[in-house]
Amino acid sequence: MKVKADWIEQAWQQVVHKMEETSAVIGATFPNGSKAGRYERSAPHDWIAGFWPGLLWLVYQETGNERLKALAVECERQISHTLWEFDQLHHDVGFMFELSSINQYKHLRDEEAKRHALMAASLLAGRFNAAGGFIRAWPNWGGEDHSGWAIIDCMLNLPLLYWASEEIDDPRYRHIAVIHADTVLREFVLADGSVHHIVCFDPETGKRIEAIAGQGYAADSAWARGAAWALYGFARSYGYTAKKEYVQAAERIASFFLNHLPVDKVPYWDFRLPEDEVHAPRDSSAAAIAASGLLALAALLPGESGEVYKEQAEAILLSLYENYSNWGVEEEGILMHATGYFAKDIYVDTPLIFGDYYFAEALLKLRHA
Ligand code: GLY
To answer: Which of 44, 190, 214, 250 has the smallest number of CB atoms closer than 10 Å to its CB?
Structure first.
């Protein structure tokens, strides 16, 4: 039996310590990206809203800290109110409600929180376009017609649908998740394991029109965080459905991701940047998401192949811990050097709350492995 590395426990205890400190300032608000050491806050209907309560629940489950629990409960109350402003919502209710309401139901057996998550699942199912077999990502933000747009990130919204089907013992939500995942497999995932960020369909006929760059460098580049969402998302879809095509997709994407990492195992924000982009920033959040996804994959695969993914995840997390983490009070974020939206200069080379979340989630998986 392998002895667990000391750094895992050390890193986890530092997460706990930092959360105890930053939560006194952040309270029950919704941190997004860091500027000059402080997290900017977002509204509770922003796609990132679930990650802070998600972090609070991770630490609560290990420490029983009642103050953190109370903050998570207050965050859930605010997030659940957005259900009544559903025209401002989007497909990322999956992230939002899995990490807030489902966690609250899991930890406190809170039936009201369960109802909120089921309502969110119904909203997500309502975004399904039956002609194209995809879940529409966004409303028409900025006046742009998004009625035929689906995006790779949605792979991690599907667990809300799988969960809802299991809870109410009715396959409808799962059917929608499977049809969407099949569409993504066909239209987003390339033979080499790279993925598109956005694919645009004709919302009437459902026919594919084109792939577009989205947060990636170009339509035919390979946005690093998109690959991480896809890897983790297909692993989770496999966990819920046992469809072998999903585990094959997750492995193909994992192999692309791992084979394109630089020496320190933290990707540049896009895997296919022109060679003259020598000062491109990293995206540590993509590394953290991929590490947690690799651990999800490892837990689903018996024997040596699972062990190899676990070792790869461990190597990524060790590099994040040694080279990218910040435990000081001058910075509220934990993981430095994440990149939100490079082309629009939004949160470039700075901590992002979801980088912190997946880093902590993955550490905890290793701690219990
Ligand atoms: N889901 C949006 C992002 O990854 O930035």
So the answer is: 190
